[in-house]
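The step that takes the researchers longest sounds almost clerical: writing a folded protein down as plain text. Below is the pair of lines this work produces for a single protein:

——
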Amino acid sequence: MIVSSPSSPAQGKTQTGIFGRIPPWVTLLALAPILGELVSSHQTPLEFVNPFNLLILSLPYGCGALICRELLIRWSGSALSLLLLGLAFGVYEEGVVVYSLFDPDWSELGPLATYGFRVGVNWTWSIMTIQFHALISIGSSVVLAHIIHSDRRNQAWLGKRGLIACGAGLLAWIPVLGLIMKYDMHRPFPQLYLYLLAWGVVLGLVFAAYRLAIRQVPSVKTVRARPWFFFVLGLINITVVFSCVFITAEYGFPPLGVTLLSLVLFDAISLALVWRWSGHTRGWDDRHRLALIAGLLVFFVFFAFTKDFESWHGTSIIGILTIMGLWQLGRTVHRKRQLSGYTS
């Protein structure tokens, strides 16, 4: 249910505000870690702005988002290709780099460690965290960068050397983070077949994104839903998935297989609705894309406030800034649409 890609007549020809002076690749390099770590409240503002920490975060998130975005443009892919690339990034980060998909003692699991762990895999954690990276870390950051730099959304933002540098940066994340977290002392290496399987899934998803991109997807120009439909769908999807994962783990019911099947079916229904409402992801404009992203992010904004209610970390400030940013971006999108001669 990620969105992005080809521009429509409703989209303006100018960049958004102060961002017009910033190279678009810099915008995306910053947006990816901001959404993935800061807006999600995974890190507090003070933790995030630590120069060393910021470098370690920008390396994978920013490089990963730029690679996914450049492949999408070079392949002339649609939102579905971006979704697959985002999923590949999620498996790479959580399976290849930090091993959280396979570590039953991963610090963030809580009750998921006992409920969702089977045959060497944290299944419910895997679904939740991979979906998070696909929708938020990669999908939302790429789409927001496209909206901000709408006049350059269909252009390559990196040359060959830049793309190679991002690839090297992403691969360097494996040894760098490994040394920092000292896996050899504290965390066992996952079973070899699982590690190789994770690499296989990453490569398979990238190949599937390529194959999907080169296929001609039928275009339906009529969008079947107003922007607020997408907002509600994004909010419901992310809320249900995260709530279902933790609530079922807390109570240990229903059986794990039922939970996994329910999550997959729910995501499939959500994706089908986006596909239908957006005219096969070819007919919508920035209003619909931004509404979907806002729905996804509002869930995390809510928890940014609740986290500060429990103990002050400054996350509510990030929540307020996120709301203000989305509101301003929405006004800009609306203004561009009016200048383009659209009144409906």
